[in-house]
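Entry 14. Ran structure prediction on the chain below.
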Amino acid sequence: MFYNHPGFVQPMIDNTLTALAELPEGVRAGARLAFTTHSIPDTLADSSGAPQDPARARPGGAYVAQHLETARLVAEAVAQATGVAERPWELVYQSRSGAPGTPWLEPDICDHLASVHAEGAPAVVMVPIGFVSDHMEVVYDLDTQAREQAEKLGLPVARARTVGADPRFAAAVRDLVLERAATARGERPERCALGALGAAHDLCPVDCCPALRNPRRPRPARTGPTTDRSAPAGDPCFPMIRIFPRTRLLPVGPEIPMAQMFQ
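Output, structure tokens:
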């Protein structure tokens, strides 16, 4: 995973600084950073990660912990670059769906803008760390809905670009593939990761993210060995099982075209 890889973090730092520069000069120093990612049901977030992962014991599990680490890395670098040491930042969410009665991660970005405006924030920079391209979900949720909310409030906002085709991110993906290939050959490659959480595992153990299990389904992709000997072999670690329960999952292999996976 690349959430703490410098090839992902550094482009997001630069994109955040560019977005800050787009704000009126008088509000830049006090602008808050709102790091956004896709909301998911609380039950999925709370159980995300492998059992031995310390983040699993905290609200939001590894899903929230990893996003918070990315946000912290970006926020600290932005503070150093701008000389504003106490710039507030928060992790917020977008793109909620599902049944209204099912708790999902909050706050929503639009609710967050209203909240910080009420607190007297002079401006906000939205930083979509949970996405890698400026696709329609980002454009609609942030550039349309969130901007409309900000205009109603009279709150200046700017939106940082995602990493997109940044060459540093492309190189990071290449590095991760090479690391995985080296591990498969029995080598011990040096892992490139920033911050305190370190590099993630190569293969999800089959008892990772237990809220996503469905023993009646075949395993959709290769996983690592289970750390829970009571777990049924073949439990998948795949969030679409619960979010899109009508999805039919098939094992991945050369005999099964990729197009058939999500029929």
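The longest strand covers residues 32-38. Will compare against last week's run tomorrow.
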